[in-house]
Amino acid sequence: MTFWTKTWQCLAAIAVAIPAMANAFPTGTIEWVVPYAAGGGSDVVARVIAAEMAKSLGQPIIINNKPGAGTNIGAAYAAKAKADGHVVLTADTATLAANQFLYSKPGYSAEQDFAPVGLIARFPMILVVNPQVPAKDLKEFLAWAKAQPNAVAFGTPGAGSPHHLATELFSDATGLKLLHAPYKGAAPAVQDVLAGQVPFMIVDTAVGGPHIRAGKLKAIGVASLKRVAGFDTIPTLDEQGLKGFEAYAWQGMVAPANTPAATVATLNKALVTAVNSDAAKARFQALGLEAIPGTPAEMGAYARGEREKWGKVIKAKAIKLD
Questions:
Q1: Phi, psi at residue 176, to the nearest 5°?
Q2: Which helix (H) or strand (E) holds 204?
Q3: Is it true that the peptide bond before 26 is cis, omega within 30 degrees of 0?
Q4: What is the mean pLDDT of the chain?
Q5: Whole-prediction pTM value?
């Protein structure tokens, strides 16, 4: 073999290796931006999934909590990150469905700035009341609420939250006149329902579940079309006559727009594996969550449907956060 033959063979091998190296993913630590404070339901889910994904991807995943402005701060940060898959974002009802209607300048575009990776979980919601409210089902609750001389107050984790929007949808569906009592987080809202300061709220299973199981909150109905595992004795609002009523808080993962399709596919494969892991299943069951893994295309379609649904509610109620 001549010198030139060997030289050309080496050059050819390098030419093949360079694209392979360029397409390698991941090449280092992945930053998972969670647009909420540490310790909340979204943060807990992200940490469980991140630990499992790291096993599949062979690289560590660190959680970067960037709370504030209804997820806008974290979302805007992730939208501007390098589109190579090493920065991903927990994207949820607020980020992808509500904020573009709630804020005049959220700092990012839900439709243009992100590449869907996949859905993770839905947080079922349950209409709960203080045990002193004389109602055990939807019929009795509606009769009690309509008999009150003033509008009945309801608590939420904050204006524009999925819980707030779900209750506004409930108000429209039932014709009830309600008074919104926004709090800074779900925990203080639940505490005031427990104390009787406000008579009811629609709460997700992650926050309200322990109080329901302990008998400290009375569950009227589940805001989904099927009963929720772990809360099987609670009938849905749909089966109690509020046909088609459905409201969830949910979360998934996105990457910055223009992230290579192959990288998104790698992330999605690891995400689906993580969501289906025994560790995630156990944690989700404890929180009353429903795993909803799927493809990037399925997440994109789901987010579009949620934008249409909640955009109508926000516009009809003229809800604005700035």
A1: -75, 145
A2: strand 200-204
A3: yes
A4: 91
A5: 0.85
Domains, in order of start, for the chain: 28-123+250-317 (3.40.190.150), 124-222 (3.40.190.10)
The residue with tokens 């604005």 is 320
Q: How many residues does the chain have?
A: 322
* Cα four-point dihedral sign 154, 158, 163, 164: positive
Residue 145 and residue 177 in contact, taking contact as beta carbons nearer than 8 Å = no
Work out the average pLDDT over 48-56: 97
Exposure string (b/e) for 173-197, b if CB count within 10 Å is 16 or more? ebebebebeebebbeebbebbeeee
Tell me, what amino acid is at 105?
Answer: K
Q: Tell me, what DSSP letter sits at residue 236? A: B
Q: What is the pLDDT of residue 21?
A: 46
pLDDT band at 242 (very low <50, low <70, confident <90, very high): very high
**What pLDDT shows up at residue 10?**
52
2-28 mean pLDDT:
58
Is residue 167 classed as helix, strand or coil in its secondary structure? helix
Q: Which residues contact 153 (CB under 8 A, 6 or more apart)?
A: 178, 179, 180, 181, 198, 199
* CA–CA gap between residue 79 and residue 226 (Å, rounded): 35
